[in-house]
Amino acid sequence: MLPDGSKFSEEGYIGEEMLGGIEEGRLQKCMSVQDSIADGDFESYEETLAAYGVSDAEYKKFQAENTLHNIFVSFSIKDNHQMAKVYLEVFENMIVSVIPPLGSHAKKIVKELKNWSHELEHEG
Amino acid sequence: MSTTTGAHILTPSEWNQCVRLGYSAYELGHSGSIVDFINTNFPGLELLVWLTAVDSLLGGVSAKQLYKVVGFDNRDPFKLIIEYYSEDWDDNVNGLAFSRTLTKDKDFKIAAHDFFRIPLPHRMMGHGKTMLAYGLQQYLNVGVDAIRVHASLTDGGFVWARAYFQGVNRSEMELILADAKLSLSEEQFKPVESIFDNYYNKNPDGKAFPINKWSNMDGMDRILRGADWHGELDLNKKELLAKFKNYVTRRK
After folding, report:
1. Stated pTM of the model
2. Do A42 and B225 touch (CB under 8 A)?
3. Does B151 contact A9 at a Cβ distance shorter than 8 Å?
4. In b/e form, how buried is each residue of A13-29, taking b as 16+ CB within 10 angstroms?
């Protein structure tokens, strides 16, 4: 057997293989922002973004992609057409949940989403 | 303690196939059957599957004499040690060494990533990632609670932080923080310190410092690459496991 293993350790290149490129790095930074917000590491959202060098737009894009992924996983629909319809319906529910009571702008958006969803249903 | 133990039971025939692959059993404690030892202490372990995968992947990376050992210690805490190494294992350019220890005590199972070195021409070809995926499957089969790694050699301090391992020893985190204070600008250091303070104020004796956050901060990659720390990945934390699995299995 090898001598006492306690003096050895895993070579860094073993893990280096798993490091992704720039895009993966940005994704990890956004995940850290999310973790830091959950853990209350900083006093404000802006301070948290600055700590990781992430912009507001980047973080919102990350959250949008996360949400889309969750919807995709939750509905397990393989047809793109059907999936788009589900996205619109979930989005509609999100607006209704977040902005009660609905103002005229929100009502207009919700109405458009419903129309769009119906169109997709007929196209499908 | 994890309860996700699998149903696989190692048979004497499977062990004989391991022997035919070149593996030999090495008793560290009292004498006994390795098959009984594994079925008693690590039920669910697909030893033949794991050792075949190790042999297929590492068998061709060294021209030197290879040693394949399955050590077991049937004294509490019970240990199973998988080793696969070349006769020049201590040559940090050409040597091959792979060592994993599964330890079981009364209510905890640990997988220690003791050592993994690959000859230079075979590095950065995905062997590390593949071996990690093979190992993880077996850890989940036997209900391992945590993976331990000593992050130090050749940039290991950074890459294992990126792989979601968490800092076990506060004193090691304090050393990294001190290095950061010396090396970073005041503006860069402030958030690094905030992460440390927030975690240890809430968990003075905490053994799961989220060092991954540090690895994503500007200037910290260089500091972590030179750092020496002991990390642990708690496989019972579902969110952490999901991140790690995604990290190990995703394509670049």
Report:
1. 0.86
2. no
3. yes
4. bbbbbbbeeeeeebbbb
